[in-house]
Design a protein that fits this description.
- By secondary structure, this protein is of the alpha+beta class.
- The chain has a domain of about 130 residues: Peptide Deformylase (Alpha-Beta Complex).
- Helix content is about 30%, strand content about 25%.
- The protein contains three helices and seven strands, in the order αβββββββαα.
- It has a five-stranded antiparallel β-sheet.
- The longest helix has 28 residues.
- The protein is globular and about 40 Å long.
- About 35% of the residues are buried.
């Protein structure tokens, strides 16, 4: 059963999620230049549906094969606040000296299916960008949501969380993925079928 409620139109479709090794994940995405379009709205809806079917907290456009600077999110922060939405053309603020301390915490990725490893990131992040209509947006997050903002922006810069790991931890993540990916794909297919998508 899909664990979180969400609101997308009946026309939204589940898109295939790219997996590490796919070239689109390893190159920077292009900025969105046209706002308020039907195509952009449909992409966001498809990404939200795809993220929920895959039981993710965030999803970048290149994870569904579209090389645009856009991500969607559905994540809680350490204060118990639930954040949902999207961000177009995001840029992370440089952390202040007080926010530069790295915290190792468990992180997964829909493009590294089945793997969870500790990844060092700052505990707080501020992302600036736009909504789908071109209106400026500033989003701040701590804990898991701060981690999500950094993770998804990394994707749009052509980086996976694997790139932040030691050689040993990267091997462990890839081993986990090899062991679990078919099970993860089966769960995603079952969730999509449950929704009739």
């Amino acid at each position: 059963m899909v664990s979180r409620p969400f609101d997308v139109s009946e026309r939204a479709v589940v898109r295939a999620i790219t997996v590490t090794g796919d070239d689109i994940l390893h190159r920077p995405c292009r900025e969105v230049t046209e706002f308020g379009t039907t195509e952009l709205a449909e992409l966001i809806e498809d990404m939200v549906l795809t993220m929920h079917v895959a039981d993710g907290a965030g999803l970048a456009a290149n994870q569904v094969g579209v090389g645009l600077r856009l991500f969607v999110y559905d994540c809680w922060d350490d204060d118990g606040v639930h954040h949902t939405g999207h961000l177009v053309n995001p840029v992370l603020d440089e952390p202040s000296p007080a926010d530069r301390r790295l915290v190792d915490d468990a992180e997964g990725c829909l493009s590294v299916p089945g793997a969870t490893v500790d990844v060092p990131r700052t505990d707080h992040a501020v992302a600036r960008g736009f909504d789908q209509y071109g209106e400026p947006v500033v989003i701040a997050g701590n804990g898991q949501f701060g981690r999500c903002l950094q993770h998804e922006t990394d994707h749009l810069d052509g980086r996976l969380y694997l790139d932040r790991l030691s050689r040993r931890d990267r091997r462990e993540a890839l081993r986990q993925m090899a062991d679990r990916r078919e099970h993860v794909f089966a769960l995603r297919a079952a969730r999509a079928a449950e929704l009739g998508r």
